[in-house]
Amino acid sequence: MKISRFKSGLAPTLGAALMCATVLSGPVAAQDTAIGPVVGPEINEARAALGRRLFFDKRLSGDAAIACATCHQPENGFADGLALSLAYPGSKGFRNTPTLINTALAENWFHDGRIGTNLNDVTRESITEDYMMNMDMRLMQERVKQDPVYVQMFADAGYGEPSNGSIRKAIPEYLNTLISHGSDFDEGTMSESAQRGQELFEGKAGCIDCHYGPRFTDDQAHNIGVPENPEIWSDPMRHMTYAAFASFMGVENYMNIRQDVGAQIIRHPADGSDIGKFNTPTLRELVYTAPYMHNGMFKNLSDVVAFYNAGGEDTPNLDERVRPLGLTFLEQQDLVAFLEALSGDPLTGPEYVWEDPIPTNYTAIENWREQTN
Q1: I need a surface site. Which of 83, 218, 313, 352 has the fewest CB within 10 A?
Q2: Structural domain boundaries enclosing 277
Q3: Structure confidence at residue 362 (pLDDT)
Q4: Where are the alpha helices (DSSP H) in the chain?
Q5: Is residue 301 situated within a structural domain?
């Protein structure tokens, strides 16, 4: 099935597992594979500006040490450039930091897909989870109320005085602004190599069977044989973080396993059939978001394509459609060129980044008992 490159629009990798080198059986319905530029939702400018300041404010973490932007950095495609993420001081992460570009349109969140489309819920978990930002939202609300800039911005946004609920609305409004644009794929200016790569993507390599739509993802979880990252188990702080997460999510025998069980935590099928499944990542903005896979196991796109060209790694629950592709070296290079053509203009301008200082010392309020904020 041929799809014109002028209708294109692939989705940004979450720095996670790429399915682009899998071969899947059977054609995919044309309406499911329609690809084109990503169209973002309508934006309330005042609320998005408020969310942008909140996103870059370290006071939203428990010890005021990290902001959302600490791990989701604009210059790295709103990922962090690390194989495994940082975490709240005193712990370390056990997964790769996903990009936030275009994720306002995602059907679910996190590599295991444990939260659906409600960005309010995603924001709450990211702020309050102890290994993420470890914030008590009652404390956060009081911190924000002390800042006169926030008091005015919340009022301008129509939220009234600062509140937890409004914070959980404003940050998603900002995320709505992080939409891909300007890629060679969208503009119809791809190189000949990238055009050949698109033909492979839609044909011999079979990538489009799971990477389709404007974001180039089916938003489904698959086991594609990604090798485990041994650092999760060799680094006590990373292992500790995973063990705490697995215990809370009800993972059986979590102290003895040496595997990230992925989507198994959602339904806990008795046969373990969801172990090792992770969401298909978006493929946009790949040039900014290396390393790749949910655990950062591949440093560059050439390594990813070569890995799947060889048929992935044999593992229980491996998707039956993963198999050797038989791509030549030049074909692999063409496929990489196409994947690179899905990256657009970096989202690093003032409309995406809060550039003004965020002060933390304020003039004392006289007669504070009479204040209503």
Answers
A1: 313
A2: 5-39+201-340
A3: 65
A4: 45-55, 68-71, 119-128, 137-145, 148-156, 164-175, 184-187, 192-202, 231-234, 236-248, 264-267, 301-309, 329-340
A5: yes
